[in-house]
Amino acid sequence: xxxxxKQLLTKYAGLDALTAEELDQLCTSAAQAIENAARLPNLSxxxxxxxxxxxxxxxxxx
Amino acid sequence: MMLHHLTIGAAARLIAAGRLSPVxxxxxxxxxxxxxxxxxxxxxxxxxxxxRSAAGDAEAxxxxxxxxxxxxxxxxxxxxxxxxxxxxxxAGSRLLxxxxxxxxxxxxxxxxxxxxxxxxxxxxxxxxxxTGELTDDLPFPIARNPWDVHxxxxxxxxxxxxxxxxxxxxxxxxxxxxxxxxxPAAACGLVGLxxxxxxxxxxxxxxxxxxxxxxGLFTWTVEDAAILLSELAGADPRDPSTxxxxxPDHARxxxxxxxxxIGVVRRFHERDVAADAQxxxxxxxxxxxxxxxxxDIVELDLPIPLKDYRLCTRVIGxxxxxxxxxxxxxxxxxxxxxxxxxxxxxxxxIRAVDYIKAVRWRRELAVRTDEVVASCDxxxxxxxxxxxxxxxxxxxxxxxVMGSAMCVFxxxxxxxxxxxxxxxxxxxxxxxxxxxxxxDEETVLRVAAAYEAATPWRRHRPHIVDCEGAKA
Lengths: 62, 472
Description:
The structure holds 2 protein chains of 2 kinds. Chain A is mostly helical. Helices cover 48% and strands 0% of the residues of chain A. Chain A is built from 2 helices and no strands. By secondary structure, chain B is an alpha/beta fold. In chain B, 40% of the residues lie in helices and 12% in strands. Chain B has an 11-stranded mixed sheet with strand order 1-3-2-4-6-5-10-11-9-7-8, sandwiched between helices. In chain B, strand 10 and strand 11 (429-436) form a beta hairpin. Chain B is globular. The two termini of chain B are 14 Å apart.
């Protein structure tokens, strides 16, 4: 990654004043996020209720 | 009678009969903490004065003949990410070293109302989270495993496992986002129960992941877990994820397993991961015990590999942890330990679309898993997949935490329990996991209770050597 790209990535992440170590960690995290995203399945859309969040057999409120 | 080895059930019966004083009981635990915790580091804060005062009040209630419940006078500990009014709550972090809440976590409140007595706040990885990476940059020394102080005690509820296993608390509460109750319970040879998502309130517990966090409990016996659960369960207006469902009846957990249909999921320890051979053999032995007790053991084909649950919970957990702690991360990350900083950094760049994909996928994983779980009364599978490692073997520690099968039931929300099923060649406890249908903790506990009663493992206690070389 070029210094300019790293700067852009930092700005996108909402971070500033990163140490060199933190910047390296951010780049590693970015790579991991890209790798994880590529492994997530593409589920078909529109086949589920609008309520997508997980609640086991229960209403949201008692 | 060694008071620190009493179970909740036994102590409650003695207190109710007037044969055991809550003052005597609390004094015994405080004395043992003073003797051993310089070696074990299970407590961050010991609330000695408040505990003695509460014990005095508890004793006065007994003497006055007032009606008392089953937890009256029972000493317990709380992971230090539970809010305790007027008592420092650090969550194991430099960021919260001086934080004194002005409210109680709901579960702590319920225990106090039931007459239980807080002994103190228990050690934890920072903010109750982590990846198994052990660093020396936290404000408190790492808790030690009482079975071997050179071995890992599990995490993130490190002090809870250590305290209950070593007789420094009769029970403890922790939190479990990816196994943080069940892993230390397994490493320390305890019963560790993560009930169904929504069964226990999370109000007043420092959040880690909004949708994966589950409160959980540590006890020496299955009966004690059942007693605690029945006192803690129930809807809480302060936590909208909680629901009112019929309470588990701890009186029914002794019904045995005859004719129960118990499924076994082998893929985690046989196909997905090369589990340790001693562990795999112990699980087979445990299944044999349940079969001999009359259970119908059936093979289950769970069509989802462990790596799918891990990926799904990693994306959700990282994004939610960063959302929970973004402001602290931006303003004070230099005060965080490296393990937490790295974990939060992993959540910074997860795209909204990927988080939503993971949430949708989670629902599918939960539904498909539930089809398998609901086909039986309970399911047995592995929890940890390796033997408890030495603290010095950092790679093995990380693998023990991140490579376990615990996250499956954080993803799906099913109740899951670990219990001791043997002792390995290093003298450390082995364990299995028992999961059940949503809100059917009672059957999970029933299976565990039958196994516990038929095996000798509750008669084995760790032999602790304190820092001055004395055995306890």
